[in-house]
Design a protein that fits this description.
- The structure is a single chain.
- About 15% of the residues lie in helices and about 35% in strands.
- By secondary structure, the chain is α+β, with helices and mostly antiparallel strands.
- It folds into 4 domains: about 110 residues, no CATH class; about 100 residues, no CATH class; about 140 residues, Tick-borne Encephalitis virus Glycoprotein, domain 1 (Sandwich), CATH 2.60.98.20; about 120 residues, no CATH class.
- Strands 7, 8, 11, 12, 13, 31, 32, 33 and 34 form a 9-stranded antiparallel beta sheet that branches. Strands 15, 16, 17, 18, 24, 25, 26 and 27 form an 8-stranded antiparallel beta sheet that branches. Strands 28-29-14-30 form a 4-stranded mixed beta sheet, with no helix packed on it.
- The protein is rod-shaped, with a radius of gyration of 46 Å.
- The protein starts with a helix and ends with a helix.
């Protein structure tokens, strides 16, 4: 039989194999991250009819090349263009990921790790990041609970939406900042009620509260000093939080004295004091406030005094009536803090900055009866008038440089810039808050103060937070996965690991866009590498398209068709020659 027949058959088979490769490439032209293959031909062994001979110096003849007749063609190798980057296809799905570079995603089918360039992922019912086509878990590194950083250890399934990740825990506020302009000509600052600011804060359970502070200007010659005191604390419903559980001042120190020159004037035409009773003036007086029935240890306790509607009044309501008569309606606390200040040596009225003074507040005078005596007919304060030199409060002071208005210290200490709100005294879930006042300045702002308070320091640390619910997940270009929460926080959930191989073309296709490691690709160490370590990165909302080039494939198809056609002609011609040979017997 003729050798050309078998050469033709070998050519047909080999070109058919090449057509199979081309057909598979074209069929996967839209397969996500498909890597095109190509075939390389190699000639079969050759039959040697005469071996080569060397030159003969004795006879002067040259050497003769070997005479070999080839026996056809075979498939030398089928190569995968595995490092060829496919084009990007935008999907808008944040869990669709595209790898740029030569690395592979690591996935697990429940028994073994496999590798893929297909980044079409989703979050399954258990909260795991998985492949949409197969459900295989995407593998990566978890967060070290001690450091909060990624721990590059043996890869594990990335469960990004576990129960613990769905919420971000609350945190109590620990730091606060007061900043802005305090204009000494602001009518709020100079008024008896002072300038109020609010500091919002959280307790350890994430409940929100508001601490109301008040700035009040000194009434003395030095207008550069201000008192700062805690007025009240309100919960998120606007209800006042009871402060009776505190064992000491919640803010600053107790018994601070500020200079305040004022007069308390009783309208003797309409009112009169009768011992411990404040009454209307006239022949038939009506008792407005009877101090003798007040339980001073429990001002909320009911008394025997009745209001105009016949209801029992509490001690606090009686004190409110007294404050109202003296022009402090709605400001009973401020009224009760007013104080007379006496020089201990001479017994004469004095200012708070005198060397040795003693003071007595309105509340103390109401308790010991001296207030009623002062306003009684023929009392020591003629005309029903009492001169007030100051006010007593729990809090601290803030001062400014008279020359430039810069913050100049707190509590009489030039180097002090902070004061503490000692909320831990209230028990429960409250924590102390250190408040920085160094950002306050005293400048002319056309009579308007801009001073305000914010939780947290100047960098936002220690602001506290409420419980946060997860509102989104984002994946960075290095594979790190972050969750965002509606309390403004973010949390690192894990990092997608990738695999790199010394010979990626040596990977073995497993179907479903999967590859498995082989002896020639190099082994996977079980840990993987950061995608950015080799200059690669991950793009979100995109998928890698097939790297098959249709123009090249159709060109290869033409040459393959012609090669197959030519080999078939070899068989036809060889058959004709054999036919002529068999006809010789005729």
């Amino acid at each position: 039989m003729m050798r050309s027949l078998f050469s033709g058959v070998a050519g047909l088979k080999t070109h058919q194999t090449k057509m199979d490769v081309i057909g598979n490439n074209i069929s996967n032209v839209n397969t996500v991250a498909y890597k095109g293959s190509s075939i390389v031909f190699a000639d079969l062994m050759s039959q040697t009819t005469q071996r080569a001979s060397g030159a003969n110096a004795a006879t002067g003849t040259g050497g003769i090349n070997a005479r070999q007749i080839g026996l056809g063609v075979k498939s030398g190798a089928i190569n995968i263009n595995i490092t060829g980057q496919g084009s990007a296809q935008s999907t808008g799905n944040p869990f669709d990921l595209m790898l740029t570079g030569e690395n592979f995603f690591v996935v697990n089918d429940g028994t073994q790790n496999l590798f893929t360039r297909d980044g079409s992922f989703y979050v399954d019912g258990a909260g795991n990041l998985a492949m949409t086509s197969t459900g295989y878990n995407v593998m990566g590194w978890k967060v070290d609970p001690e450091t909060g950083n990624i721990k590059q250890d043996t890869v594990a399934a990335l469960r990004i939406m576990s129960a613990e990740n769905m919420t971000y825990p609350p945190e109590a506020t620990s730091l606060g900042t007061v900043a802005g302009i305090l204009d000494k000509n602001d009518t709020d600052v100079t008024s008896p009620n002072g300038k109020s600011i609010n500091l919002g804060f959280y307790d350890a359970l994430g409940y929100y509260y508001t601490a109301k502070f008040v700035f009040k200007q000194s009434d003395g010659a030095d207008k550069n000093n201000y008192s700062v005191q805690l007025d009240k604390i309100l919960d998120s419903n606007g209800d006042e939080v009871p402060l009776t559980g505190a064992t000491g001042p919640l803010f600053g120190t107790a018994e601070q004295v500020q200079f305040l020159a004022t007069s308390l004037q009783l309208n003797t035409s309409n009112y009169q004091w009768n011992g411990q009773q404040l009454q209307t003036a006239g022949a038939n007086p009506t008792t407005i406030a009877d101090l003798g029935v007040i339980d001073w240890n429990d001002l909320n306790a009911a008394t025997t005094q009745l209001d105009a509607n016949g209801n029992a009044m509490t001690g606090q309501q009686i004190l409110d009536e007294v404050a109202k008569v003296y022009g402090y309606e709605g400001s009973t606390e401020e009224f009760l803090q007013l104080a007379t200040i006496t020089d201990t040596a001479t017994g004469n009225p004095a200012t708070p900055d005198s060397a040795a003074t003693t003071h007595k507040t309105v509340l103390e005078m109401l308790q010991d009866g001296s207030f009623a005596t002062a306003f009684a007919a023929g009392g020591s304060a003629a005309g029903g008038k009492m001169e007030i030199q100051g006010r007593v409060y729990d809090g601290t002071t803030i001062s400014f440089d008279a020359d430039n208005g810069h913050f100049n210290g707190m509590g009489g200490v030039l180097t002090q810039a902070t004061s503490t709100l000692y909320l831990s005294q209230l028990g429960g879930n409250f924590s102390d808050i250190v408040i920085d006042f160094s950002g306050v300045g005293m400048y002319d702002n056309k009579g308007t103060s801009t001073v305000g308070a914010d939780s947290g320091d100047k960098e936002g640390r220690g602001a506290g937070r409420r419980l946060g619910d997860m509102i989104g997940v984002s994946i960075q270009n290095n594979g790190m996965i972050y969750a965002s929460y509606d309390n403004g926080m973010t949390k690192l959930l894990g990092q997608i690991a990738t695999a790199a191989f010394a010979n990626a073309s040596g990977l073995e296709k497993q179907g479903d866009n999967m590859y498995a490691a082989t002896l020639n690709s190099g082994a996977f160490d079980g840990i993987g590498v950061d995608v950015t370590a080799n200059g690669g990165y991950i793009s979100t909302g995109q998928l890698e398209m097939s790297n098959v080039d249709l123009s090249s494939e159709f060109t290869e198809m033409i040459t393959t068709q012609r090669g197959f056609q030519a080999n078939s002609r070899i068989i036809t011609v060889s058959d004709t020659l054999l036919e002529e040979l068999t006809n010789l017997k005729r």
